[in-house]
Fold:
Amino acid sequence: MTITFGAIGGGRRTRFFLRLAAALPGRLRISGVVTRGEERGRQITDEWGVPAFRSVGDLLRHERPDYVAAAVPWPAMPDAIRSVVEHGLPVLAETPPAPDLDGLRALWQDVGGTGLVQVAEQYLLMPGHAARLALVREGVIGEPTSVQVSSTHLYHAVSMIRGLLGIGFEPAEVRAGAFDAPLADPLGPDGWTGDGTPQRRTTTIATLDFGGRMGLYDFTENQWWNPLRTRRIVVRGSIGELADDRVVRLTDPVTPVESHLVRRDTGVDLSLEFRDLKHISFDGRVVYRNPFDGSGLSDDDIAVADILERTGVWARQEGPAPYPLAEACQDHLISLAIGESARTGGPVTTGKEAWAQPVRCNGWRLVITEGSGEEADRPALARHPRVGPVAAALPVPGQVHGGGDRGRPRPRRQRAAAAPPLLARAPAVGAADGRGQARGDLRADRRARGARGDRAGGQRGRAGAPQERVPAAGRGRVRGFLRGRRHDAAQRDGDPGGPLVRPRRPARGPAGAAPPADHVITWEGRPWW
Structure:
């Protein structure tokens, strides 16, 4: 399967996309590039063999790709997004989607309800971070309570903090400060400078208080490139801590143990294989596997290629949303608060914005029944246990747990007692109507299940629709319901384990037709999308 996408912009990031498409010809293809200047377009065509156009309309008349990736400067990004959405085509926007809070609000008002916009936030798809996220979601260190990130800047770091903590759209109190200090800065995007003289560089440190969970942001100018400043990732949990690749946790009241994340990189020393990342393991089991094995891509290249491919799968309605606009807006909202607090020296508290409400995702929407207990007021995103975010914004209040999620992960020993919810994709309806419909369908399902008794197997769901039985892990406090599909309850005890399973997908209908029948993907026996 080859994902085809167009691009807007002729700068460094667009060339990044062109390079990845050239490196993965069987996976990614660029149909054309939209540039403002004719000369820049001619350069791209001569160098990469890709046609250039002056407008999105011209690009789409040439060929209609799966989606369009916009990589333009901050001030131009909102209009670039709107220009694609106007043609009814999905768009993947570079970060951030708008330069300031007013821009975010205006953009959301214009395109948020369409569900056509994803954002290229790739950091939790990077192999090392994806492996760490998998361990946190498994509950290896218990409930995550704080995350420290000293690696990348602003919205990228906020995305990592929110993802590792399982934070949705809760208010955050931000306290930040900035100071200057001398630091040699010998390497930048254009290469080695040849100057080792210390220069004044600004370091910004901020705390993000989410009400019981905390993030620490620490970034120095040009930290991405400067070899004198290494990255640091610390996730602290209720029964352990993850610090970079080292994990310590309590296995019983008197036994703390230490383990490590281990990369398998070929082509090192006497390994005569091609230089490549194969996988990352933990305690003898693989927790991350390179989806582009044999490509020789760097970690950042892998993450960007991953989100480019996932966006195409989502645009075809064959997979979940990689990073919805609502998530990127929330990341930048908090990053703007960091900057404001650093300038003023006082705390800044973020509020609940319009994007915290549920929206359709490419013609579909999530229908989640309300949770109960202390977690009921914590909105969440379902997350794949290996590679990051997979669902659009959820209603508030509500909580979703799956094979991995943005809610509070439960330790393995508790999974048999708490079922993950099911994400329902249904035609768009009002938020209140959707929740009421889901609750009514769930009650009808219970009555039907009682009439059937305990028999297993057979056809479930719509008459004639191909179905696969979805095992349930038990009844939890949070319950979801997938419209059009019926589930047996509590057929198994414990955590059955197993591969990623996707039922046969019905054929796609013509443009404008009703969405295809719902389908479920399971991970280790638990439905996660």
The CA atoms of residues 375 and 420 lie 14 Å apart. Residues 362-436, 452-518 have pLDDT under 50 and may be disordered. The longest strand covers residues 255-266. The first helix runs from residue 12 to 23.
